[in-house]
Amino acid sequence: MKFYLIGLVVLLLSGCVTTTDSAFTRKADKDKALQNYIQLGLAYIQRSDFERARVNLNRALEIDDESSEAYAAFGLLYQQESENVLAEEHFTKAIVLDGKNTRGRTFYAAFLYRLERFDESLEQFQLAGKDTGYNGRAIIFINIARCHLKLGQNDLAVKAYEKTLALDRTQPQALIGITQLLIQEGQYLKGQQYY
């Protein structure tokens, strides 16, 4: 009988669950929703579904009207729609709001590259390349090399490719790029090593 009574008490106590709604959980939920809307927006941009992208990015800005990531995504949206003035406004606003938004900075740098503003693009890629914690850092240095090539700075392009390969030894674009450059400059033995 004792065991039944103890079991009943345990059962009753386990049924009593208290939930709290704290500022921390509300903040975490808002941050998660913000990130989800931005990711959805970027996915729709990638699929060229610009209307749905716009809806989701607007929702992100409703949650946080100073979200650097949302403004960078809007810049990408406007770039895809060939609204270059609006794209640049949104990219620069994203960087002003958060100078450490490396992904947004790389979006902006690629935008400048497409407009053949290679000096400005190089500057933005170099700033992005300083973020040692950024996951796609090797690709940033490939883009730095491409900017140097457009500016006729082949020796600096080689250094950028070497930095890429220091970060990712098997990066095919860097291996091809540095091999071609070295062969063009007559450094056949060094080029053959990368080949």
Short description:
This protein has 195 residues and is mostly helical. It has helices spanning 2-15, 23-46, 50-63, 68-80, 84-97, 102-114, 118-129, 137-150, 154-167, 172-184, 188-194.
Give structural notes:
- With 195 residues, this protein is mainly alpha-helical.
- It is 78% helix and 0% strand.
- It contains eleven helices and no strands.
- It has helices spanning 2-15, 23-46, 50-63, 68-80, 84-97, 102-114, 118-129, 137-150, 154-167, 172-184, 188-194.
- The longest helix has 24 residues, at 23-46.
- The radius of gyration is 25 Å and the shape is elongated.
- The N and C termini lie far apart (82 Å).
- Residues 7-22 have low confidence and may be disordered.
Major β-sheet profile: none
* Rounded mean pLDDT score: 88
Low-confidence stretches: 7-22
Shape: elongated
Indicate the percent of residues in helices.
Answer: over 70%
Structural class per helix/strand content? mainly alpha
Order of helices and strands: HHHHHHHHHHH
What's the total helix number? 11
Distance between the termini: 82 Å
Rg calculated over all Cα atoms: 25 Å
Strand content: under 5%
Tally of DSSP β-strands: 0
